Amino acid sequence: MLAFTVRRLGQMLPTMVGVVLLLFGLFNWVGGDPAYLLAGKMADADAIAAIRRQLGVDQPYYVQLWIFMKQVATLDFGLSWATGEPVSALIASRLGPSLAILAPLTVLETVLGVALALAVAFRRGTLTDRALMLACTVGMSISILVYIIVFQYGLAYRLGWFPVQGWGGWRYAVLPVLIGLAVSLAPTLRLFRSFVLDEAGQDYVRTARAKGLSERRVLWVHVLRNAAIPILTHVMANLPALLIGAFLLERFFGIPGIGREVILAVERSDFPVIKAITVYVAAATMVFNLLADLLYQAVDPRVRLA
């Protein structure tokens, strides 16, 4: 396992270099001149030149690339062009509210998805199974905007159970978590159900049933253990989303999280913030993929890391 981990960490370095080069090329050759965006339509040539000097974009490309690579290596992306705050401090201050929503949402979605998938698989083909799948299809067909409006109006405005907007503690996180769960549980349940049913049709399941094991034990012990690998893959692939937050939820509820900050950065053409978040998400994706590979062997000792 140690050799595998060291080898994978070594593979991350050229991958991150590729991400940095791609990101640098997109922002310098496709994204346009940030000085024109920040100066406004009425700025003269002298003002634009001054902004270019201030931002450092008047230097040769190889100098800008070297500066960017040092920023990635030190995780110091300079100052935000819009607010003047250090980018690292800005992201750190926005990460807490995003995690307060997405961490419990991820846990609830996974636990409920697995439990309901096993329950549905236990009653496969029954009226309960078909009704639940129909409800999932209907739920997936409704836009998240409808959920936000209905939940805000009904549970927050009319009943007063939760704050309508703002941020100031766990009470402000409950309603966004409920909305996120209502939106994400249906596709998660359908996906996990397919994983469970794929395993339920294998030969080892028929052997376990032939030995006289109860259906409940077959599902919870044998089927779940083998279905855990694709479920784990799905969960670990979604974990980097914790770093970028829930865009619409944070925007509609006025939550000062990463997702809302990303939207503001795009609207303001705040390239340092966008670059920093992109690099963080890329690094987190590689790290979580490595953790997923290591957890495979913990879930199923038959897996060999090569």
Report on the structure:
The chain has helices at 2-30, 34-39, 45-55, 61-74, 87-122, 127-141, 144-158, 170-200, 203-210, 215-238, 247-253, 258-268, 271-299. The relative contact order is 0.13. The termini are close together. It contains 13 helices and no strands. Helix 5 (87-122) packs parallel to helix 13 (271-299) and helix 7 (144-158) packs across helix 8 (170-200). It has 306 residues and is mostly helical. It has 2 domains: 2-74, no CATH class; 94-268, MetI-like fold, CATH 1.10.3720. It is flat and about 85 Å long.
Question: What's the topology here?
Answer:
Elements: H1 2-30, H2 34-39, H3 45-55, H4 61-74, H5 87-122, H6 127-141, H7 144-158, H8 170-200, H9 203-210, H10 215-238, H11 247-253, H12 258-268, H13 271-299
Query: Regarding CATH, which class of the largest domain?
Result: Mainly Alpha
Q: Biggest β-sheet, characterized?
A: none
Mean pLDDT level:
81
Provide the domain count: 2
CATH superfamily caption of the largest domain = MetI-like
Number of strands: 0
CATH architectural group of the largest domain = Orthogonal Bundle
Helix content: over 70%
In one word, what is the shape? flat
Q: Could you name the CATH topology of the largest domain?
A: MetI-like fold
**Structural class by helix and strand composition:** mainly alpha
Unreliable stretches? none
